[in-house]
Amino acid sequence: MAEENNTEAAAGAEQEAPQQQFNVQRIYLKDLSYEAPLGVEAFKQQWQPKVNQELNTKTNKIDDSNYEVVLTLTVTVKVGEDTAFLVEVQQAGLFLVAGLENQALAQVLNTTCPNILFPYAREAIDNVVTKGSFPALMLPPINFDALFVQAVNQARQQAEADQGQAAEEGQSVN
């Protein structure tokens, strides 16, 4: 009898706790842009490129448990002062995320999802660059967990600075 009550209590606790779920619904290329403004002149110059990489993520809540995460990666390659080529990729994914809230949800959407999308974006960039007749461009891996921690720390420092400034302004008025 005691075992029955314990089993029922455990089953009730499991029903009350939200079930955590994560699933990749779809990965797709949302946008791709390639420009080679120098044209043939880029191939006449000695190839000593300067690579600049910009990264951004954006999350759109589709419904209660589905999120679209878009990883935007912009790569600009210059030879001297001239831009040899510029590639921008928006690699997107539709992710089912349920049972997570606040910090845990933000971490999954800003680290796990971009980690899944990045290899696809990197491959798309390499593919279009080689089709443009430039040498292959293999971008190094990105540590999205470290970037997330850095962004959280910067937001916290900014909030503290804003609070300190508000407190100082309040004191100077008196």
Q: What's the short story on this structure?
A:
The chain is α+β, with helices and mostly antiparallel strands.
**What string gives the helices and strands in order?**
HEHEEEHH
- Decide which structural class fits the backbone: alpha+beta
User: At CATH's second level, what is the architecture?
Assistant: Roll
Largest sheet, strands/sense/barrel: 4 strands, antiparallel
- Strand residues, percent: 25-35%
CATH class: Alpha Beta
The overall number of domains is: 1
Question: How is this structure best described in words?
Answer:
- The protein has four helices and four strands; from the N terminus they run αβαβββαα.
- By secondary structure, the protein is of the alpha+beta class.
- It has a single domain, classed as Bacterial Protein-export protein SecB (Roll).
- Helix 3 packs across helix 4.
- It is flat.
- The protein starts with a helix and ends with a helix.
- The mean pLDDT is 87.
Which features characterize this protein?
34% strand, single chain, alpha+beta, 4 strands, 174 residues, flat, 4-stranded antiparallel β-sheet, Bacterial Protein-export protein SecB
